[in-house]
Amino acid sequence: MKLLENKVVVITGGGGVLCSTMAEKTAELGAKVAILDLKRENAEKVALEINKNGGQAIGLEANVLDKASLLKAQAELHKNFGPCDILINGAGGNHPKGTTSKPYFEAEDLEKDEDLITFFDLDPEGIKFVFDLNFIGTLLPCQVFARDMAKSQSGNIINISSMNAFTPLTKIPAYSGAKAAISNFTQWLAVHFSKVGIRVNAMAPGFFLTEQNRRLLTEENGDLTARGNTIIDHTPMSRFGTPEDLLGTLEWLCGEGSAFVTGVTVPIDGGFSAFSGV
Ligand code: NAD
Known about the structure:
Elements: E1 8-12, H1 17-28, E2 32-37, H2 40-52, E3 56-61, H3 67-80, E4 86-89, H4 124-152, E5 155-160, H5 173-192, E6 198-205, H6 214-217, H7 226-233, H8 247-254, E7 265-268
Parallel strand pairs: 1-2, 1-4, 2-3, 4-5, 5-6, 6-7
The structure holds nicotinamide-adenine-dinucleotide.
């Protein structure tokens, strides 16, 4: 019997780069998978691919910031596959309005040119967007889908944190703070649900080249930017991650091998978080 046979998996942001790979993996392990994404066509595309390869999946449009939309997706899920056993909270990301132009503020920046975004220019709406998408966008799906788990007295939640939750990255205070909130919430929820058989853990990917960060890390010709080079210099394994690098940890967290593990955030980072830079 396959590891996730008879399990129902919900994965938010499942139309994206990292989470579509995770959706495919859980299907391969025998789960029935619901791929939820703001972009319906992306969710459906991933589901179609899984079904073509002999798995069972549905693609559903859902906004992780809108409880009504999540409840609608849950109703579809129940109709097609039954209640949720495993929730992977993958929807997330940064926004340019929560990002400074430079890593360090310097005295001359007070007389700045128009295009420079310093700390003083950060738009509270941009910061709020990033906090909402990452934190509220994790909390609301837990409220909706963990109810299924509480009823069956068993379940598994996997959140997606990031390197910047351990130590903030320069330029992206909103994304760093929001991911730190996710790691903290993972611990809180693990304790809160510990008496009803629901485990809550998180994965913290290091640096994976995706559409979200390609502009920050590579030049148009594919060469690394200064920031891309700094990341590789601080990653002892000297490379970016690939989506497949996440799958071993995902399988472990989803399965009985981690039955006594709850409240942890696992770095998958080629050593980035262990390295002091010296
Ligand atoms: P991605 O942009 O490819 O995927 C994110 C998906 O979320 C997209 O399909 C998008 O449509 C969907 N989405 C956005 N807003 C949504 C909403 N309101 N409701 C529902 N879906 C919504 O990004 P990715 O690189 O695959 O990242 C996946 C997760 O991993 C994110 O939480 C990201 O913050 C995290 N992460 C990524 C990296 C990296 O290096 N790429 C590193 C650490 C953590």
